[in-house]
């Protein structure tokens, strides 16, 4: 399925307008479109519809996949018009107004600490990943409610509601140069414990000329 963010997925129909390019990304911002922009949203839904028109009638299609590795780049709040409006509405302050940390004990942040609230907001709402996923999920399940939507990777933080509309969220690791700690599956599950979403962990075996598994 179409992620609604990555520029490569808009190759056939490219959004145009004053606010279509992503602003405020942690890195590689030039690779993304702004999911809060109406024109980007329209073409995202159109891209999803094209895929469903092509494959939706086949009963053996049981899963749809969206690569959301983009969350690794989008670790700041979106700074486009729609993103700023959402942040003002949900947080009431900007990134520049976070101020000093607020502790309730040594090393323990208060629930209302602005830095803590900001980072939760980024991953649950503010980077736009959730909005794009929900949009794709609505389009998919509106046509094929039986198809399970999978997204990965789920590896930045274990927070609730990071991947709305998904039926399965996953992370993955390689065997080389070193395998990720096996507890990654537990980290996924921790963020899903109060939901009906299923966790999934992939392991990719990468053969190299000298060895298959790392010696470390």
Properties at a glance:
alpha/beta, four-stranded parallel beta sheet, 216 residues, two-stranded antiparallel ribbon, single chain
Structural write-up:
With 216 residues, this protein is of the alpha/beta class. It is built from five helices and six strands. Helix 1 runs parallel beside helix 4. The two termini are 37 Å apart.
In short:
This protein is an alpha/beta fold.
Q: Low-confidence runs (pLDDT<50, min 5 residues)?
A: none
Give me the number of helical elements: 5
What is the number of domains?
A: 1
Question: What would you call the shape?
Answer: globular
Order of helices and strands: HEHEEHHEEHE
Number of strands: 6
Q: Please indicate the percent range of residues in DSSP E strands (runs of 2 or more).
A: 5-15%
Q: Tell me roughly what share of residues is in helical segments.
A: 25-40%
Can you lay out the helices and strands and say which pair or pack?
Elements: H1 38-55, E1 63-67, H2 81-90, E2 103-105, E3 108-109, H3 114-126, H4 129-143, E4 148-152, E5 168-174, H5 184-192, E6 198-204
Parallel strand pairs: 1-4, 4-5, 5-6
Antiparallel strand pairs: 2-3
Helix pairs in contact: 1-4
């Amino acid at each position: 399925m179409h992620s609604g963010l990555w520029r490569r997925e808009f190759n056939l129909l490219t959004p145009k307008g004053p606010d279509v390019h992503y602003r405020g990304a942690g890195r590689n911002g030039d690779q993304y479109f702004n999911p809060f922009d109406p024109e980007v949203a329209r073409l995202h839904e159109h891209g999803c519809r094209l895929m469903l028109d092509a494959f939706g009638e086949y009963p053996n299609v049981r899963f749809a996949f969206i690569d959301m590795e983009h969350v690794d780049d989008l670790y700041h709040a979106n700074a486009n018009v729609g993103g700023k409006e959402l942040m003002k509405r949900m947080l009431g302050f900007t990134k520049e107004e976070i101020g000093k940390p607020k502790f309730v004990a040594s090393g323990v942040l208060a629930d209302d600490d602005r830095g803590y609230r900001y980072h939760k907001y980024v991953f649950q709402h503010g980077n736009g990943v959730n909005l794009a996923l929900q949009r794709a999920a609505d389009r998919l399940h509106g046509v094929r409610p039986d198809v399970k939507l999978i997204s990965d990777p789920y590896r930045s933080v274990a927070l609730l509601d990071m991947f709305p509309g998904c039926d399965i969220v996953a992370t993955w690791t390689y065997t080389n140069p070193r395998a990720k700690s096996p507890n990654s599956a537990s980290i996924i599950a921790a963020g899903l414990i109060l939901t009906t979403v299923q966790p999934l962990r992939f392991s990719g075996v990468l053969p190299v000329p000298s060895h298959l598994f790392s010696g470390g």
